[in-house]
Design goal:
With 236 residues, the chain is mainly α. It is built from eleven helices and no strands. The relative contact order is 0.15.
């Protein structure tokens, strides 16, 4: 079967690109905000860093199982909390059983699980910026936004490139969340390229299609990486 005419594969490819396109700015932005908040010399700051990093060391399988219960359409924690917050006015939603909410729910869970990892990378980048630059900008009357724009962000340029590439590559490998939480459903709303490759190559024992999908994934990831590197290149 030609992959270009395979409706399920094309849906999986589109879903994967959407997932990567949303998760990259969402996860990277949240991680940067957390890094800026935690890059302070405050009491117990290491405790808060450990708390935010904790989900990273938990297996994605365990996290996916946990969030599957949270998203449960009948007795899930999310529906319960929303019902309490709205004094019973919120109607329960089957978050993983609805084609319109399954992918956003998976994106939210994935962002929560990995944001601590990228927060640590942002923190390492922040700590390489000389404090003398902030002192000089303060003497020039720069405010918080001006310090971030003209000191912090330029100093994080290489870190930002690294994080962007890492997040996109990880996102293109979307599999565990799909396998544990939705099995590609509902109505193929959460199909991914890697899930299709595994399903066809192992479950259906169609090695040819599984290999072809893997090659397509490699080409797509390589192309995205080259484009990212070109757009973020040093133009000096």
């Amino acid at each position: 079967m030609i992959l270009a005419a395979d409706v399920v594969f094309l849906r999986a490819l589109i879903n994967t690109l959407i997932f990567a396109g949303v998760i990259a700015p969402l996860q990277g932005g949240l991680a940067l905000v957390l890094a800026l908040l935690l890059n302070q010399a405050l009491p117990f700051i290491n405790v808060f860093r450990a708390i935010y990093f904790a989900p990273v060391v938990v297996s994605m399988v365990v996290v996916s199982l946990l969030w599957r219960f949270i998203y449960d359409g009948e007795n899930g924690l999310l529906n319960t909390l929303l019902g309490i917050a709205t004094l019973g006015g919120f109607q329960p939603v089957d978050w993983l059983g609805n084609p319109y909410t399954a992918m956003p729910a998976m994106i939210a869970m994935s962002a929560w699980q990995a944001v601590g990892f990228h927060m640590v990378i942002w923190l390492s980048g922040l700590q390489t910026i000389p404090t003398s630059l902030y002192e000089a900008s303060a003497l020039d009357g720069a405010g918080a936004w001006q310090k971030f724009r003209y000191v912090t962000w330029p100093g994080l340029r290489n870190t930002a490139v690294l994080i962007l590439i890492v997040i996109v590559i990880q996102a293109m490998g979307l599999f565990v969340q799909v396998d544990v939480m939705t099995r590609g459903g509902p109505l193929d709303a959460t199909q991914s390229v890697v899930y299709q490759a595994v399903q066809r190559g192992y479950d259906k024992q169609d090695i040819a299609e599984g290999s072809a999908i893997s090659v397509v994934l490699f080409v797509v990831v390589l192309a995205i990486t080259i484009v990212n590197r070109y757009l973020t290149r040093d133009r000096d």
